[in-house]
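Look over this record before class:
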Amino acid sequence: MAGVVALMKAVHPGLTPAELDAMLASGLLTSDLGTAGRDDVFGWGLIDAAKAVLAAQSAASGVASAALNATPGRVDFGASLTTSTIDLTKLGSGSLSVTGVGSDESWLTVTPGTVDGNRLGSYTVSISRAGLSAGSYSATVTVTTNTGTTLRVPVTMQVGTGPVQANSGRYWVLLLDGNSEMVQQIAINGTNGKYAYRFDGVAAGTYYVFAGTDSDWDDFICDDGEVCGAYPTLGTPTTLQVSGSRQGLDFTAGLVSSPSTLALSESRDRFKLRHDGRATSKGVSQ
């Protein structure tokens, strides 16, 4: 936050604390999280550096400016998904339109879905694994605008999973509600690289599923150097609608090298999640 304020002061040296507070309360500096508006869990939301600098520029000059934002800021198809969606929106109040959307790999295509006259809106991102050898692949969706700026969205995917034989320690599997609050947790061990999980007595509703190791025993999974995963992929966690029994909710987990390589542009650092490890290890929450 201090770094973002420094950037704001660089373009608006006269920025005052009262002006900053007003921008924060009006949603000009953040992306909302959890309950709409301010709440005791997420405050005013996740600070957005680009959005904040634009607000400072506008306040300093009185000239409206705009920038392009992509949600999510990274797309991960994992080993099974074939389609996803990117939403292109405008930050700020100036004029902005999309002049081009493309990819740098033949296996990746981007087509407009519901877009407005400025070509802002929803785009479908699709991949084809046909003819590709087993392995990991990466590409980039590139978006250009009438202002001459370029936005790039990294895309990753896996072809073939191959036989997995090794376990990677004890996993904590967390069931989170739509506000990313933990509802249930289980601790499981793997067999030949596979981890079976099950939650019982789950009320109807919307949930996320995350899993990871806690090798430093700090009651948080998905730290640097630990294993982390989410359904259906860690790059694009998707909510589950539960109204009865659900099966086949498989996903993969991998080593965390840096939170910045995992974080979604519109979310908080949701990959470092707290679990009740000490209680579970004593058999209280199994």
About this structure: The longest helix spans residues 49-61. Residues 2-63 form one domain. The helical segments are 2-11, 17-25, 49-61, 277-281. The chain has three domains: 2-63, 68-159, 171-281.
